[in-house]
């Protein structure tokens, strides 16, 4: 689309035979005309073109249309745009990204409507949006039936035009209403700050896509001042267990399910994400000596999402390492305690070939959170005091990774090396674990004392 301000609008023309009235104008060297049955209609259209020139709008040299009219012609509803956005992102998106995108769009779409009259029940509307409209594979399979089909018809007919979100008189109300909806859970209570930030990013992304398609001139979110809840990025140090507590927890796991002690040990001693430990294979154990430190090389990450969201139809999404390019590897030195846990696990298990998973479910598939999660909670009750069980201390298996990283930082391992082993950037590492680094107060206090004493002597 090439825009020009070299525009000339002529007086209305009249056809004697059919008594038509025409609006004629020129954009650069190209002449255009539009004919109407009545003088009033033609005069109204000409006045609109003149208003566009006074506003300083550019006119398209190919169609002759002002920029604002072109956007109206290209306008789609919010629902249509959201579906197109899902289709755009779906092929290369991780399964977890697909679910979070669908969740955000299913939250905001019911708010961006022309009217709430005859609005379906929230549960039914959620089902058609999250489970069908924003799930590309299911949408491609055909239309839904029953109550869900009626809800689909309603949302299609009631969805706002995207251009309405940038109308000067409505922008603030519509955008704020959408953002406020994203800040609430389904039960009406405030959502977690991280959830709000994630959903807002999806909303912003869809409107940026509208700018890319020339439906909007700019992202209207950027024109609205709205404060999102602050995101607490730092790890809660109350969730970080001490090495002695970790030993007690692993002993409790070993007493009930000895084959899982090494799994939880990988999260703590090798700073692994649960999905990385789930996908660990014998070929990843490049060095497990009888004495001393060993070494793992991590290549995959298999978070559990749900079979309906993956391309393979499996509940675990087989992906490359998080925040890393495909085929990227991460070598992690592991201490003797984890080497022993892994060696004991291999002796106890029937893992024989290099490509076999080290930790498997009852049917031989990847280890599921529904299996190791309850075992971890029972281990907490067995190894911790009642007060500690009620606290955030090692409340989730993922907290073991936080504990391992914290241990390394407090041991004095340089941040770049800890970040490399954990698969973080140094910036993220220091931001997330800043509140967990301690043990240096005495050093800094001593230095301050020395300076203060020096000032006193002067």
Automatic annotation (TrEMBL):
Q: Which Pfam families match?
A: Phage_integrase
- Report domain Tyr recombinase positions: 236-453
Q: Which domain of life is it from?
A: Bacteria
Q: By its UniProt entry, which Gene3D superfamilies does this protein fall under?
A: 1.10.150.130, Intergrase catalytic core
Disordered, as annotated region = 307-327
The record's SUPFAM superfamilies line, in alphabetical order, gives: DNA breaking-rejoining enzymes
Q: Write out the GO MF terms.
A: DNA binding
Kindly list the residue ranges recorded as spanning the membrane: none
InterPro entries recorded: DNA_brk_join_enz (IPR011010), Integrase-like_cat_sf (IPR013762), Integrase_catalytic (IPR002104), Integrase_recombinase_N (IPR010998), Tyrosine_recombinase_XerCD (IPR050090)
Alphabetical keyword list: DNA recombination, DNA-binding
The biological process GO terms on file are: DNA integration; DNA recombination
* PANTHER family (alphabetical): PHAGE INTEGRASE-RELATED, PROPHAGE INTEGRASE INTD-RELATED
Q: Which protein family is named in the record? A: Belongs to the 'phage' integrase family.
Protein's name according to its UniProt entry: Tyr recombinase domain-containing protein
